[in-house]
């Protein structure tokens, strides 16, 4: 891949970690006297904190994906891999535009998009450098492949005189045929389309006879912990094509939203990838952010076994001795109660009585997080097992009475 990209006129750099990615991009920007950067949507640049690193050096960065642009104006991270602003309502987006870019009041989504498009058009024309990610890199041709529905990636990679593509090493595919398969799978799983509106393939800088395109194209291939994963039982996580299907199917993600995962990658795949990239001890709650229902594996277009890896990560945490004492004590009490019908029945009765006599608005100890945002429900006066027994007894009495009448 590197040799073919260089043959196409691209300059290839390798980055071992986030700090090196930011250093390389900053060096390129300073080398070309860059003052304004236009960015297309890129998870790996979110991962390494590129925007912050450039802004610290007084380089203006503009996100050009509409969802990312809205979030940048409001100074918050994305909550979904594909639709970063899915957690925002139309009214909240309107308020952001009115406050940050002085949009005249309107409740029309079309008018909001039109106003943002006019603003972004000015930034495209003013940008000295474009920064993109890469959905795939084709090794045999040295081609960077980008898929979007807004067309902003085409502008980012064509209008500025310098284009920098920041791509994880796991995005390299061997052949054009491999890419053709994946570029059909990705939009179907991400947005339900046969093909995205824009499919853009970058084969190098502008040729002498071409009027459009950048004069310089740089490709930064990012490791940042990925090579560590390749030779482990978690290697299949690197096959993720960032379609977001597992997020859409996950009951935990649907209940908590993306920000609850605490880093760039939310949802089931984030609960696997984040601990692997930042260290299990730094993200130890995430493997438990799953009901293990299996929906994520069922919808994954590349058949990543996320539930298996979540269980393995939980096992690794226990092996490292990171299981919390209160949690383990609670699990032992739960196991004791659920393995004894008598204790289970007694516990239910005591809990029901206590919840009526001493109503709880907050749970104590390690359970208090559950009631921070929701009320604790009252226990039923009779547990289901007693209602079931009564129902079965009523049915038996009805049958016996019917038999007596028939005789």
CATH superfamily of the largest domain: NagB/RpiA/CoA transferase-like
Computed structural class:
alpha/beta
Tell me the β content: 5-15%
Number of strands: 10
- The outline comes out as elongated
Main sheet attributes: strand count, strand direction, barrel closure:
6 strands, parallel
The N- and C-terminal alpha carbons lie at a distance of 87 Å
Unreliably modeled segments: none
Question: How does this model look, in words?
Answer:
With 407 residues, this protein is α/β, with parallel strands linked by helices. The chain has three domains: 2-224, Rossmann fold (3-Layer(aba) Sandwich); 235-319, Alpha-helical ferredoxin (Fumarate Reductase Iron-sulfur Protein, Chain B, domain 2); 339-406, no CATH class. The protein has helices at 2-7, 18-31, 43-48, 50-56, 66-74, 90-100, 109-126, 152-158, 176-190, 226-230, 245-249, 251-256, 267-278, 295-299, 306-319, 325-338, 341-357, 384-406, and strands at 11-15, 36-39, 60-63, 129-132, 136-138, 143-148, 162-168, 172-173, 198-202, 216-222. The strands form two sheets. The chain has a six-stranded parallel β-sheet, with helices on both faces. A hairpin with a 4-residue loop joins β5 (136-138) and β6. α13 runs parallel beside α15 (306-319). It is elongated.
